[in-house]
Design a protein that fits this description.
The protein has nine helices and ten strands. The protein is of the alpha+beta class. Helix 6 packs parallel to helix 8. It is globular.
Amino acid sequence: MSEHLRIALRLAANGLPPLPLRKGKVPFGNCPACAQNACGGRPNMKNPGPCTCPAPCHGWAAATTDPHVIDSPSWVRAWREAAAVAYHPGGAGLTVVDLDSAEAIRWARACLPATRIVRTTRGEHWLYQGVMQSANAVRPGVDVKSSMQYARWLGPGTGTIRALPDVVRALTVKKPPMVRPAPQVITVPARAANGVCPHRTRTYLDRGIAMAEQRITEASSAVHATVYRTFLAVLSTHGRCGCLTEAHTARLFTAAQAKGESPRHCADAWTNARTQLGL
């Protein structure tokens, strides 16, 4: 039994839903049967069902406390390849305040009630009892990981877990700053004369959407701005030619929500991008 699997089973026994992380601290991608949500499960990453795929698919939603799943053949293979173990805080009734800098730690010590603290490679995780909306970059160097997110397991930490305070909840209800891109000239392709998009091929679309998902997933800061710029780029290419479908939009929204964006923020960014392009 690998060390990662041993840790995962111990976490599950304690009520923490684990999942394997590959290199880069990201979840394993969907298997071929579940690619692009072909399985019909977790279309918006809000509901873990009804997909019954035995592989650790669907990002954070793969996290489970079922030892039979965690120790199943497909998961065992993933644990052997895994670079780290993560868990879904919201699934355990927890919220993690991720502090990635000395300045962020100083702010937490001055403004947040003491609670259990886990040391990380760049800072600290402060754990609270309670679930809330996840969000990135709520303050400089501060992310909130709870529902629809995952946190890397780095040990049990020290201190007593306290109830989730209002000051942490307030971090995600503040209206994010409006993204105002600099004026620019954007050429939007028009529909071909015969009504068929000149670049409407599955390969072209899949590559473009996959690159957009990757750009959002790899954002380490300024997530709001990255999501907006990515939406703008996709719409500038396909906004008027009829290529985009609801399935493509769902994939982009799913990638953004996995980084902590709320459905409302995704919808606002999409609307703002369409307005910028005059769509």
